[in-house]
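Re: beginner question about structure tokens

> Can someone show what the tokenized structure looks like for a real chain? I only ever see the sequence side.

Sure, here's an example I had lying around. Input first:
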Amino acid sequence: MNKKLSIIVPVYNVEKYIDKCLNSLVNQTIDNFEIIVVVDGSKDKSIDVVKKYKELYPNLIDFFETENHGLSAARNYGLERANGDYIGFVDSDDSVDIHMYEKLYNHAVINDCDIVICDYYQILDNGNNLKKLEVEENDTRESIVIKSKPYAWNKIYKKDMFNTYNIKFPEGLIFEDICSVYPLLIQAKKIGYVDEPLYNYTFNRNDSIMNDKKIKSLTMLKVLKIFNNYCKKNKLYTKNYNLIREINVRHIYYRINQINQNSNSKLYNLTYLFKAIWMLNISFPRWRTQCEYAKKIKRKKKNLLYLYLKILFKA
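And the corresponding structure tokens:
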């Protein structure tokens, strides 16, 4: 029997967080939903916590254990087994408001939305949290796609979209949401927005793969190429050229600005910078003058020469 919603939770070495995560999910106020937990070869005691919740909520939680293949593989594994009309993703070191999925699902059904997004809290190690405002009521569709960002977790999606548009999370890469969530957002017939911070995102976890700066920068270029190629293959490129260019420039500049916090060598950093600019020049020849974000950065005096010199002469 179909469920209203399937919530997919990949689990890997999160024994410190998983209890809070699952507790927030089993207490959701929505009815007729399922939680699909995929333990992705976890080496700590996370699996014991998952088994405890499975025993307590046998009709609510489906539990699978796989070899470690990464976040994307676990999400894809869960998608193949999901019975919900809508899909939600929760990272296992995060938690959600108990009303989150009822609010997002009701908004989706009432407004016939393919995707519904919400705001989120950024949970810091010192216990502080910061509300991240996403979308305003009068935003254009293009602004909604940009502002909602490619996070998989602060949204719900019609499950049919994944099959219709052949969307999977690319395995073996970080920034995998760029290759999957952006194509979903671009092709959604209608995107809804709930103006509340309903997701609690654990920011900058010390043992997270996202803190391995060495693998970040060049991987960003790889996933952007995958995203661009998907758009070309599926005839989205010409119609959405300005939006696709904006996405590329924003993500590349974000990584450039992060480089100064990178402990890698200047050579590695400059390699990324040159490859990134080469990629933009080839794919979007007039990006410096036509891209709104690039023009905004230029007005702040953070042009390419400034960034180059800052990296080159970094102490």
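Each token stands for a local structural state, so reading them left to right follows the chain. Residues 207-212 have pLDDT under 50 and may be disordered.
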